[in-house]
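Fold this sequence, please.
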Amino acid sequence: MKVLSLAWKYHPSITSGVGVACEGLNNALSKIVELTVIYPAVSSVQIEEEVVLSSEDLSEDQWKQIETEYIELVEGGVIELAVRLDPYFVSKQRKYINKYSATSEKNETLSEKSVKEIKIKKVTEKLLFEEVDVFGESVKDKIFLYNRLVEELADNIHFDVIHAHDWMTFLAGIALKNKYQKPLVLHVHSLEYDRVGHKDASWVYDIERFAMSRADKVISASNYTKGIIESNYGLSQNHIETIYNAITLPGSINQNGERNGDLFRVLFAGRIDGNKGIEYFIDIAGKVLKKSKNVEFIVVGRGFGNVIFEEIDGFDELKNNFRYMGFVEREALFELYSSSDVLCMPSISEPFGLTAIEAAFMDLPVVLSRKTGASEILNRTLRADFWDTSKFASHILSIKENPKLKTRIISNNREDIANLSWDKSAKKVLEIFKRLV
């Protein structure tokens, strides 16, 4: 069987978990199908393109931002499009992000004003979206370009089924389905609902809902996500199938980290944005420190702009026990799993949560939000509602003070993840393809 995958390439600073999942699954699929993968690029290459703007006041840097090359060929049967898309783009962030995201109000005003004043028109063909934010992400325009180029490339690719991962590839998948009359499988790793907290009729939500209504099958990363698709996107449960992610290990793992020092280390690992629950983590940390002082709280991950933890309520009381490491490579992250004592994941909405599964593999106890896909697999670990910070703090202190509980959690988690593998997930995906072709 020949499969065309519209996926995300792993790039730590951009794609994070979804890139890890796509590469793990595609590597396994490539063993059992004839697979061609098209990735959005993660590096910039430039060519000139004729563009007419209504404003004559663009700087040289702004022109360079518009003039982007779109196609780059990569060895090994993989095609990389140099359209720089971000799977974690948020059309409308949760409002409380502004408490700790350092963004100038002056710059926001300038950008919004400029979007309205500047329009773009290509000489050779009509744009799907008229307005283009040349000062910012230009996301709508990039999606259109990505779709067009995928269609052009597909003319020279033979395939039986299309497998599209997350919303930025969905429209391209629909275009190929309509043009070539091939079945389309959409793979949902995250949703606009997860990033925003409600459907809110955003254009990203509209794309997701439209695409899923046109797909032949939708794969969800968890039953939690499947439920959201049913209740908030109007799709029948018979149209959706859950296939869990598995573990992708880095090239080398240092398991010599010390956990038996004077400090009990609590780790938070993930993007510093709304759905990961960083504010709840700060509140949890404050409650833990009221009962036990020899605890260190470590945060790794990037945020939107510069993260200002000092602007989060309660941070001043714990800053001496707090360490923010920013982005770390996967090898360093696995070393942190090895040297920490518990992973805390108070996510507001987490489609899967690969970090929790990785931590369990490294024998790191996990305290999970109930609103995570990973909790369906680690169903014997300690869990709480994301807003119940007192319960989270109590769980962390229980692990700290009860070595037998910690040992039992580690043992249970090992058993719970034992059956996960990308090869098994790939076989389940292939069974879906076979039923459709």
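Residues 198 and 409 are 33 Å apart (CA to CA). The chain has two domains: 2-106+139-246+422-436, 264-417.
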